[in-house]
Design a protein that fits this description.
heterodimer, A: 202 residues, alpha/beta, Rossmann fold, six-stranded parallel beta sheet, 8 helices, 37% helix, globular, B: 185 residues, two-stranded antiparallel sheet, 43% helix, 21% strand, disordered N terminus, decarboxylase (chain B)
């Protein structure tokens, strides 16, 4: 950051952001992309309505879209990092066409590929602006989250249906957190979420 | 320089085939209500029918791998989806198929073939030649239909294996079935 950004508030703590969003969860279904978002979600407390991805990079948001289309009355949250979002940018356009009122995508943006050695991503220094990208794709409701008050607003919004899909970009710090490692058993996680929805495991 | 423009249809050589409608009937009878696709001329009629059906959610994708994740997410939420694409799109799906394999999601993909029968465009040939192997490398079961009479029973068998047996399945629809794309000056 340069001297011109002196007025910007300090970057948010990713774990505190995710914890605040999860704290009041009711029927919310959550999909987390591989790497830190999965650890953040697990750190906020494991839940039968959590689905952790350990691969399939670039696919988290369209996985969430499929889930949102299948459960239109249930709020669905996809938690992704900036790297994951960048790999599946086209998915924002695909979501915009479907306009699911129950889908929120929260991008935890630190401008870094944290899992692989903290290389700078395309959003580093504010270059690629994912909220603007989402808006340009046709996502009507976008948020830029930089303060704790805005996090509270976001937490309230993702728990309910909106007028359409939401993409919120949260500016988080780049520090690495202790890993909180949930199950890597995809079959079990899949069966668990289906059972939580009253569906057969297969 | 010679300029070519594509004909207004990719199936101009043949009278209107009945198999696209038969695929639609099979899908609907098996309660498939999400259809994710990257357009292909060979799938044009089926895509239109799916869009025209208010009980079906038709989802245009920007790339085929989105569809692999999308139909998996739909299935975890209790809806059956189909993924429609051209053979070139199979290459785009390869890593995303690890989601299907690791979590044992069912998959039903209907793939129209290019690059194998009277193909005008050599750029279609490499992926068309590798389509079946690419799917099999990722443990997707592959069926093929080359005659119009085979299409509906093959798609029905694949749909059963996918959603009743939990097996990832792709049906390759031969270019012979569709006809080579005709380019006219």
């Amino acid at each position: 950051m340069t001297g011109g950004d002196m007025a910007a508030p300090p970057a948010l703590d990713r774990r505190a952001v995710v914890l605040e969003i999860m704290r009041g969860r009711r029927d919310l279904l959550v999909v987390a992309s591989l790497g830190s978002p999965t650890y953040d979600l697990a750190a906020a407390g494991d839940h039968e309505r959590n689905f952790y991805l350990w691969g399939a990079m670039g696919g988290a948001t369209t996985f969430g879209l499929g889930l949102a289309l299948a459960q239109p009355e249930v709020p669905v949250l996809v938690l992704v990092g900036d790297g994951e979002c960048l790999m599946g940018l086209g998915a924002l356009a695909t979501i915009a066409v479907q306009r699911p009122a129950n889908l929120s995508v929260v991008v935890l943006d630190n401008g870094l590929y944290g899992e692989t050695g903290a290389q700078r991503s395309h959003t580093s220094g504010g270059l690629t602006d994912l909220a603007q990208v989402a808006r340009a794709c046709g996502i009507a409701e976008t948020m830029r989250i930089e303060t704790e008050a805005q996090v509270k607003e976001l937490a309230e919004r993702v728990g309910r249906l909106g007028a359409g899909p939401l993409v919120a970009v949260v500016r988080i710090g780049g520090e690495e957190k202790p890993r909180c490692i949930p199950s890597r058993d995809g079959v079990a996680l899949k069966a668990r979420m289906r059972r939580a929805l009253g569906l057969d495991s297969m | 320089m010679t300029t070519f423009v594509a004909g207004d249809s990719e199936t101009v050589e043949q009278p209107r085939a009945s198999w696209p409608r038969e695929i639609y009937d099979v899908l609907r009878s098996m309660d498939v209500t999400i259809a994710a696709y990257v357009p292909d001329g060979g799938h044009a009629e089926l895509i239109q029918r799916l869009h025209d059906d208010p009980a079906v959610t038709a989802v245009p994708l920007t790339t085929e791998e989105e569809g692999v994740a999308l139909v998996s997410g739909a299935w975890i939420g209790g809806r059956r989806g189909v993924l429609l694409m051209q053979s070139s799109g199979v290459g785009n799906c390869v890593n995303m198929l690890s989601l299907v394999k690791t979590c044992r999601f069912p998959l039903l993909a209907l793939v129209t073939m290019r690059g194998e029968w009277g193909e005008f465009n050599p750029w279609q040939v490499p992926m068309g030649s590798a389509t079946q192997q690419a799917l099999e490398l990722m443990d997707v079961k592959v069926f093929r239909a080359s005659d119009p009479s085979e299409v509906a029973p093959t798609v029905e068998a694949a749909t059963r294996m996918a959603f009743l047996g939990g097996t990832p399945v792709a049906v390759l629809l031969s270019q012979k079935l569709i006809g080579a794309k005709v380019f006219t000056k």
